[in-house]
């Protein structure tokens, strides 16, 4: 079979997956290298992973993934620089003045983006800034620095690697709704202010049978603002156990997501959040749910895989 990455490339799109560095060997490594042309470290580039204690860095897994990507002619999506979650305890539990927070953020961005300058094609600079109702999420960053932490982060990321594409990434922003409209208004105002922003990431952690009907329309409205759109963390979960009816619906859902992206020129492509059910975050985070990816636990392609092929 033709690898997904080649089918996608023929349509001007990319096909990515989140990966775990320690698994990039054997069948997992073969499939990650063969089927995909973008990799996102699932956890390895998060602040808690790279700076577990202040001033003491661990780049081993991130380096491994970037090296693997280069060996397989793949691009890397850096994930993620500024987030409320998976921060090291020393950072999350510290009490910081606004000036200190600002310096911490700037140094972190300089250090991480600088380390991978020229080797990471796009960064999820800010992750999950909004609540469901479109207000800003209360976080270490928002509470200390106000909404302009987002503009600051983007500006510092641009300075650290002018060639990297800079994204804001969030979930439940796939359809037109209050949260995606808040993201839309933010991007519009950043563009008007001249703050560097190249794209939005729509995570797309979806539920079987619930692909938003306004997905394509929503992608299009961001494209019309003059930014790229990437589907950054696609998975489509179901109540376990899976059965053939659910897997068939899931395949239709994967196809619908692919088609929404294929229909909009500025949609750069789709990244799945793990390509095998054996390396998916879903069962740990949503008890009783799973089977969310295109390959089963034994690396057999599921109907969802076939559906991606058909869409491409
Ligand atoms: C998840 C990872 O896949 C898990 O291994 C980890 O325990 C928690 O984070 N949105 C994001 C990702 O932006 O970083 C999250 O990744 C999934 C939700």
UniProtKB/TrEMBL annotation:
Keyword Hydrolase in annotation: yes
Catalytic reaction list: Endohydrolysis of (1->4)-beta-D-xylosidic linkages in xylans
Domain of life: Bacteria
Active site: 233
Keywords: Carbohydrate metabolism, Glycosidase, Hydrolase, Polysaccharide degradation, Signal, Xylan degradation
Record-annotated GH10 domain positions: 1-311
EC number: 3.2.1.8
Family: Belongs to the glycosyl hydrolase 10 (cellulase F) family.
Protein name in UniProt: Beta-xylanase
Protein source organism: Streptomyces bobili
Part of the full-length chain shown: 30 to 341 of 447
């Amino acid at each position: 079979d033709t690898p997904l990455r080649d089918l996608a490339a023929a349509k001007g799109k990319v096909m990515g997956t989140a990966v775990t560095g320690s698994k990039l060997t054997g069948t997992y490594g073969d499939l990650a290298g063969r089927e995909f042309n973008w990799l996102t470290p699932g956890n390895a580039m998060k602040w808690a992973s790279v700076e577990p204690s202040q001033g003491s860095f661990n780049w081993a897994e991130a380096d491994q993934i970037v090296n693997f990507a280069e060996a397989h002619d793949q691009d890397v999506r850096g994930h993620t620089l500024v987030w409320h979650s998976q921060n090291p305890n020393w950072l999350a539990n510290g009490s910081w003045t606004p000036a200190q927070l600002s310096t911490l953020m700037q140094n972190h961005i300089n250090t991480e983006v600088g380390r991978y300058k020229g080797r990471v094609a796009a960064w999820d600079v800010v992750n999950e800034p909004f609540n469901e109702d479109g207000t800003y999420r209360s976080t270490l960053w928002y509470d200390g620095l106000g909404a302009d932490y987002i503009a600051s982060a983007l500006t510092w990321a641009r300075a650290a690697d002018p060639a990297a594409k800079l994204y804001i990434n969030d979930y439940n922003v796939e359809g037109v709704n209050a949260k995606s409209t808040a993201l839309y208004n933010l991007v519009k105002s950043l563009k008007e202010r001249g703050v560097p922003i190249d794209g939005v990431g729509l995570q797309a952690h979806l539920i079987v049978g619930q692909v938003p009907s306004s997905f394509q329309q929503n992608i299009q409205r961001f494209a019309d603002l003059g930014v790229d759109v990437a589907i950054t963390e696609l998975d489509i979960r179901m109540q376990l156990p899976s059965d053939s009816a659910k897997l068939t619906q899931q395949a239709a859902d994967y196809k619908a997501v692919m088609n929404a992206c294929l229909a909009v020129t500025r949609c750069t492509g789709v990244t799945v959040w793990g390509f095998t059910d054996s390396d998916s975050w879903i069962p740990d985070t949503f008890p009783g749910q799973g089977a969310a990816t295109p390959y089963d636990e034994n690396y057999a392609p599921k109907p969802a895989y076939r559906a991606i092929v058909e869409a491409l």
